[in-house]
Amino acid sequence: MAKTTKTQSKKKPLTKREQLIQLLDKAEGATVNEMSEALYWLPHTVRAALTRVRAGDRKLEKLPPEEGGRYARYRLEKA
């Protein structure tokens, strides 16, 4: 009897840039601190990555802080 095997497709893990884009693609956006915690980066690294996103083909929107919040939020502009 022949044994059947299932082919398992292994997804490649997302790159840090792809993870950053996912965070910025949310409707509510994300703060530098939230991105820093999610990506295990220091805040200055997040700000540098945001600069690279701006320099590329994407545009960022800077949102005001949430009610009672202190930090600005960033998200990708909708086309």
Can you describe what's shown?
Helix 2 packs across helix 3 (43-55). The chain has helices spanning 16-24, 32-39, 43-55, and strands at 60-63, 73-76. The protein has three helices and two strands, in the order αααββ. Strands 1-2 form a two-stranded antiparallel sheet. The protein has one domain: Orthogonal Bundle (Arc Repressor Mutant, subunit A). It is of the alpha+beta class. It is 38% helix and 10% strand.
Please describe the structure with a list of short key phrases separated by commas or semicolons.
79 residues, Arc Repressor Mutant, subunit A
Summarize the structure in short.
By secondary structure, the protein is of the alpha+beta class. It contains three helices and two strands.
Helix-strand blueprint:
Layout: H1 16-24, H2 32-39, H3 43-55, E1 60-63, E2 73-76
Antiparallel strand pairs: 1-2
Spatial strand arrangement across the major sheet: 1-2
Low-confidence blocks of residues: none
CATH topology: Arc Repressor Mutant, subunit A
Distance between the termini: 56 Å
- Measured as a percent range, the helix fraction is 25-40%
Q: What's the helix count?
A: 3
Number of strands: 2
User: Average pLDDT value?
Assistant: 90
